[in-house]
Amino acid sequence: MLSLGIKTYIKEVIKLKNDYPDIFNVWELMKIFPRWRVSLNERSSPLQDEQPWITFSAINFFEKTLTKDMRVYEYGMGGSTLFFAKRVKEIISVEHNKQWFDLVKESLKKKGYNNWEGDLIEAETSLENANTDPSDPNFYTSDDKVFQGRIFKNYAMSIDCYPDQYFDILLIDGRARPSCFKHSITKVKKGGFIILDNSERNYYYLIHESLDSKNWKKYNFYGPGPYGWNFWQTSCWKKLS
Known about the structure:
By secondary structure, the protein is an alpha/beta fold. It has a single domain, classed as Rossmann fold (3-Layer(aba) Sandwich), CATH 3.40.50.150. It is built from 9 helices and 9 strands. It has helices spanning 2-19, 26-39, 46-49, 56-65, 79-85, 98-111, 153-156, 177-184, 205-211, and strands at residues 71-75, 90-95, 116-120, 124-125, 150-151, 167-172, 188-197, 216-223, 232-239. The strands form 2 sheets. A 7-stranded mixed sheet has the order 3-2-1-6-7-9-8, sandwiched between helices. β2 (90-95), α6 and β3 (116-120) form a beta-alpha-beta unit. The N and C termini lie far apart (48 Å).
């Protein structure tokens, strides 16, 4: 297992060097390797580790950035929920999977985190054809074939009840992410961050285009993350004005 892990890591490091030479940092990757390797242990899990399922470089960035006066909204619960609950004033979550929602809720209770609120909002049956482009925020669809014929409109709209510029951190790591982005972009305050996981996926291009302006500063964190064999990208944007 260790040998396989080393070979996989080296393969991904070489791919990173070839595809993203401008951000390649061999020393940083060497420092991350032990942490990545431990996360692949069968005893490790996001809830046990209180660790978000985003890249390690992004985790490191937000470990230094989060403060106790911040408010967070997240689409998609998990280790990130406990990670934020430990570090911020308020964390509000929405989740589509009941079994997972119950597990995370129980973990929060056991850990004694009282600064969390969460809603379970499952997918709805669409009255129209839901086999549409998941990149279009107006369709509320997921690329997952399990959810064909279903939409996540209520899920994406769950943030609508909060005032504009209310949250310091917005994590989009759940279903129908372009639709979630559509409803949440105005909810981030000046100096706050939008985090998009798996941001290298082609069907998130509208999110990148919408935030590609002088009002937002972009950070890309491509590399290894916990519980995953292959490297991926987490992006975040800081609202400047």
